[in-house]
Amino acid sequence: xxxxxxxxxxxxxxxxxxxxxxxxxxxxxxxxLAAAREGICLFDADGEVTYANPAYAALxxxxxxxxxxxxxxxxxxxxxxxxxxxxxxxxxxxxxxWTGESAGLRADDDRFPEWKTVGALPDGGYVVVxxxxxxR
Length: 136
Description:
Blueprint: H1 2-35, E1 39-43, E2 49-52, H2 54-59, H3 78-95, E3 97-105, E4 111-120, E5 126-132
Antiparallel strand pairs: 1-2, 1-5, 3-4, 4-5
């Protein structure tokens, strides 16, 4: 009995240690995303924000607003949204990634030049990393 009891206890301790390690790694990744100077945003397969770091919100003029559920189209002038739909997204579908210049649209309707990378995520969503070219 005591050997089996020891095995169960050891297994429970191992699971707890693994869970703590996973939580710590997740927290470190979250802190890194939040601290990044580049705007980083995750969109689901429907094109809606699931996560935006503070730099992304600030870049588009939303301050600390929670952008979850907002469409990617909200961050682009209409003509650029058309180009993204006809050129950028098909490239991402075909190759997994697109990088280039784009036109961003701030909350106050100010248009600005941006450098953007769009990457495909396994769940059908996208990760977008953006830098304001006007800051150069």
